[in-house]
Prior knowledge:
This protein is α+β, with helices and mostly antiparallel strands and 183 residues long. It has a domain at 37-157: Sandwich (Immunoglobulin-like), CATH 2.60.40. Helix content is 31%, strand content 30%. It is built from two helices and eight strands. It has helices at residues 8-31, 151-182; strands at residues 40-44, 55-64, 68-69, 76-81, 87-94, 100-106, 111-119, 125-132. Strands 1, 2, 3, 4, 5, 6, 7 and 8 form an eight-stranded antiparallel β-sheet that branches. A hairpin with a 3-residue loop joins strand 2 and strand 3 (68-69). Helix 1 (8-31) runs antiparallel to helix 2. It is elongated and about 75 Å long.
Amino acid sequence: xxxxxxxxxxxxxxxxxxxxxxxxxxxxxxxxxxxxxxxxxxxxxxxxxxxxxxxxxxxxxxxxxxxxxxxxxxxxxxxxxxxxxxxxxxxxxxxxxxxxxxxxxxxxxxxxxxxxxxxxxxxxxxxxxxxxxxxxxxxxxxxxxxxxxxxxxxxxxxxxxxxxxxxxxxxxxxxxxxxxxxx
Length: 183
């Protein structure tokens, strides 16, 4: 059998390719549910400005893949986590058009709360931190939250990273073929 020694350069390229594949798998792993095609995006009607201990209605729309409003039969809620780790869930009910829900939420005291939307069989969507001030009037802030990274960008960045990793792999393979053909 004819054996040829493998040049060191080949091992370096193999390590690079393995590194790119590991990076691609890590990026895809970050997508979680999104990579499986079963993801949804929730947009708030408006960011509430709650008064501690008083109910405030939180309206929102759930869109599958960020586009199509989706009707979810069970398991839609707002989840609120206090600084001490106490978790409260407030069920949401369908209201109005397809995909629109409203939950009556009570923030028990002044302070910072992590909150998220539980989207039935879709993964939950983090809404960030909401500061509840004892001096607020219960008014509703402007639509959306200026403090959150938009969902379109979150998912868009994942897609961009996947495309760039795929391009890097294709470029690596094609440049290797060109060098082999030239030799």
